[in-house]
Structure formats: C-alpha cells, structure tokens
Amino acid sequence: MENEDKRIEDLINKLMANDSLETAPTNFTEGVMSKIEALSETKTIAYKPLIPKYVWWLLGLGFVALITNIVLNKSSDSSSLTDRYNLPEVSFDLLNNLSVDFSNTLMYATVLLAVMVAIQIPLLKQYFNQKLSY
Description:
Keywords: Membrane, Transmembrane, Transmembrane helix. By secondary structure, the chain is an all-alpha fold.
C-alpha cells in the first residue's frame, strides 16, 4: 500500500514539474472589478409605491367632500341620516339569536394555533431579515 502511494506521489510530482504556471494578464484585477461595479450599478431597484400619491390625494379629497356634503346639507328638521338620504334600514341583529357551543378540543386547538403563530412570526421575520441583509 505504501509503495502504491509512493508511485502515485512520484507521478504527481512529474506531472507538476512538466506543467508551467499560468499567469493572469496584467490588468486582470481591474477588468474584473470594473465588471463587478457595472453589475452592481445596474441592479439597483428604485422604490415605487403600490398606490401612487395622486390616488391617495383623490381618496382624501373625496372623503373631505363627503364629510363636507354631510355637514353642509344638514336639514333643519331632526331627521336621521337614513330618512334624509333615503337609505334602507339595516339591522345588525343577525348574531343575537345564535348560540354556539365550542368543545374543549376546539378551544385548545385554537389557543395552540394562536401560540404557534405568535412564535412563528418573529422567527420568520428574523430569518427573512437575515436573508435580505446579505
């Protein structure tokens, strides 16, 4: 076994002696660095909001106009908004007659799910913050 290792080592030494070292061109480093700088400059992403500013301004102006209309068109009689604008009567008594009895297993599962989500959110946030920082 030792004899075979010696033969392999001699073969490698012969191959290395016959092979000459390759040298890089004189301006190799500058060329590589200029290409890296060009790549880093082209990949910058400009922040662009999902909803443009003019849409926010239009929504704000519409909201102010709605509030102004309600305040200025107040009639002298003491009628409600539904009578004044012919709005239908809306009843929110849908859940008053509903009685739901949850089992203990469902309650435990819901609490466990809430705890797991509360643990996962900070862990995932930390993971993605570390991933984006590199």
